[in-house]
Amino acid sequence: MSQSPAPIGQLLAIMARLRDPQDGCAWDLEQTFATIAPYTVEEAYEVADAIQRGDLADLRDELGDLLFQVVFHSRMAEEAGAFAFDDVAQAIIDKMIRRHPHIFGDAGQRTSGEQVQAWEEVKAAERAAKAPRAGLLDDIPAALPGLTRAVKLSKRAAGVGFVWPDTGAVLDKLEEELTEFRAEVATGDRTALREELGDVLFVMANLARDLDIDPEDALREANAKFLRRFRHIEARLAEDGRTPHDSDLSEMDALWNEARAQDKTRPR
Predict the structure, then answer these.
(1) Do residues 17 and 24 touch, judged by C-beta distance below 8 A?
(2) Nearest-10 crossing angle of helices 190-210, 146-158
(3) Cβ-Cβ contacts under 8 Å for 200 (sequence gap 6 or more)
(4) Short-list 173, 218, 213, CA closest to 196
(5) Distance CA 88, CA 70 (A)
(6) Which of 200, 229, 239, 267 is the S-S candidate for 259 at Cβ 3.0 to 4.6 Å?
(7) pLDDT per residue over 132-179, tens digit each?
(8) Distances in Å between the alpha carbon of 179 and those of 110, 165, 176, 190?
(9) CA 194, 196, 197: angle at the middle one, nearest 5?
(10) CA distance linking residue 239 with residue 165, whole number of Å
(11) CA–CA distances in Å: residue 156 to residues 46, 121, 150, 208
């Protein structure tokens, strides 16, 4: 009996079987890079969610799902004659060695801060080598979540000095944008409202970057807090056999404040 392949080899074989033109899975055969991309993003978020919940068993499973996405894309690229999974692995191996000369080369040891600076310098050199005439911000993916992309755009611009001088200046800009947003609320112009709201969110992302806070993480925590407090409302109403449909804003607001009081006693 032949020995079973290593797990990664077995996974690659499974993917090849699913994409077999004759006997593969009809759904898998229909997929393209574009149709699979949303699943890839979703799996990355599910990895982050498992980490946030501290669920290591779930993290193992979600990392497997994310790995499968890499295998899926690699298989489609191999079929197109572009690259294969081994090329993907080799590319990241080469990049990690190149960006850590203090570990794999003859550069001296670096502190964490020095390594971050050196990493950005290497990335800048790589960008210049790929497209010497490209703009400074051109390679920041448009498909990133809006707040994350706003942070990356502003961080890159800050690297060449295009940045507010301090947090106070960012807060002043936020007040300015909020004033403009309030003015458009009064007009009811939907196009202008959308634009002004975008400006407010962009400044908020800049504020998060200035304070070294990940705005996506902060918003996820706010979402979790809202969910927790609304569930409290539902639970309290259920004690009387009711649902939020049977309540009103005044009662639900009072129950919300109960949940807020409980949150203040939660360990941070």
Answers:
(1) yes
(2) 60
(3) 174, 177, 178, 181
(4) 173
(5) 9
(6) 229
(7) 556 888 888 888 889 999 999 999 999 889 999 999 999 999 999 999
(8) 46, 21, 5, 16
(9) 65
(10) 53
(11) 27, 12, 10, 15
Average pLDDT in the 99-104 region? 84
User: Would you call 39 helix, strand, or coil by DSSP?
Assistant: helix
Buried-exposed string 226-254: b where 16+ CB fall within 10 A, e elsewhere: eeebeebbeebbeeeeeeeeebeeeebee
pLDDT value for 94 = 92
Q: Is the model more confident about 135 or about 219?
A: 219
Q: What is the pLDDT of residue 119?
A: 75
Distance, C-alpha 261 to centroid of its chain = 31
- Tell me how far apart the alpha carbons of residues 146 and 215 are, in angstroms, rounded to a whole number: 10
CA distance 54 to 58: 9
Q: Which pair of structure tokens corresponds to residue 43?
A: 């799996």
pLDDT of residue 1: 39
In three-state secondary structure terms, 45 is: helix
